[in-house]
Design brief:
The protein has 8 helices and 15 strands. By secondary structure, the chain is α/β, with parallel strands linked by helices. Strands 2-3-1-4-11-5 form a 6-stranded mixed sheet. The structure holds adenosine-5'-triphosphate and magnesium ion.
């Protein structure tokens, strides 16, 4: 292939499962137009040189690492487990979960080191082995492909290493978490060689610009409020905004309207401080895109 040659890039996503909804919403939010997830293997985007490949999440790191596709959306937990040579381009803010060590609720075990010489059931053998080795703890791993959480009650193992998001499956099975092996969320990953092809790289960077502006937008809220002019210094110090707040005069010279952007995660703390400072009639809007 010649330098600069244009070709369509390929993106692998989970066909059906916990990442499907988040992935599909994000791809649509960045403006990609494609047919819905049907029983097809490959779907072309109508408005971008991108084809979407649907597969099992476990296969995605491999597809990306060996160049079957250029990009993939998958959990960091699966990338770590497959030890895949891929380049992480962006954290996507969904599919949050943790890989944890858990023991029966009434077990006396408080720390993973107490599992020395015991059996541990998991469908994450690689991550588990690496984890216990790093602690210098020798365990016998029992590899199961699913329903790992029932292993202790069946007498198969003294502990498990498994994925949990809310911990409810653990509680349901009378298990207690004693350690975290890794934290995970969905990420966009790339084949490192693909990223060295200028044509591909350019299109991936275009996608990344759109992705980052959509992700940034979801982290912020646009707020507008009325405030006494005298309260402006205080308000500006509470909400410096992206550069500085926009201040608009009102018909009453004593009052101004202030427009600014705040982080969603600090939303209520900031609103409380603004009210204390004298702001009122605070209007809040979501931001659709934020191109920084
Ligand atoms: P596939 O058929 O594609 O192999 P799967 O059954 O292996 O699917 P899912 O259960 O759909 O996988 O989970 C996909 C990913 O979603 C996980 O690898 C993890 O990154 C993430 N995830 C988020 N929350 C959870 C959860 N509560 N339990 C398990 N995985 C979760
Ligand atoms: Mg899977």
């Amino acid at each position: 292939m010649q330098v600069g040659d244009a070709r369509r890039i390929k993106l692998a996503v989970q066909r059906q499962g916990r990442l499907t909804q988040g992935t599909s919403s994000l791809l649509r939010a960045i403006g990609l137009k494609f047919e819905d997830y049907q029983q097809r293997l490959l779907t072309p985007c109508r408005n971008f040189p991108l084809d979407i490949l649907f597969g099992r999440d476990d296969d995605i790191p491999e597809y990306v690492a060996d160049g079957t596709v250029d990009l993939g959306v998958v959990g960091q937990n699966i990338i770590a487990e497959k030890d895949a040579r891929v380049q992480e381009l962006a954290s996507l803010g969904f599919g949050y979960c943790s890989l944890v060590v858990a023991v029966p609720k009434d077990s006396g075990v408080q720390h993973p080191s107490e599992l020395n010489g015991r059996r541990v059931a998991t469908s994450y053998p690689h991550s588990s082995r690496t984890y216990f080795e790093s602690l210098g703890v020798e365990v016998e791993l029992v590899q199961l492909s699913g329903s790992v959480e029932v292993a202790p009650s069946l007498g198969i193992a003294s502990a498990i290493v498994d994925i949990t998001a809310t911990g409810s499956t653990l509680v349901l099975n009378d298990l207690r978490q004693i350690a975290t092996v890794l934290e995970s969320q969905a990420v966009l990953v790339a084949n490192p060689q693909s990223m060295e092809q200028p044509g591909v790289r350019q299109d991936v960077e275009r996608l990344l610009t759109r992705l980052n502006s959509t992700l940034a937008a979801s982290r912020y809220k646009y707020i507008m409020m009325n405030a006494p002019r005298a309260a402006l210094p205080k308000i500006t110090s509470i909400t410096p905004g992206l550069k500085a707040p926009t201040v608009v005069p009102l018909a009453d010279p004593e009052w101004v309207a202030v427009h600014t952007v705040i982080l969603d995660e600090e939303f209520w703390e900031i609103i409380e401080k603004l009210r204390e400072a004298g702001a009122s009639q605070i209007l809040v809007n979501p931001i659709e895109k934020l191109v920084l």
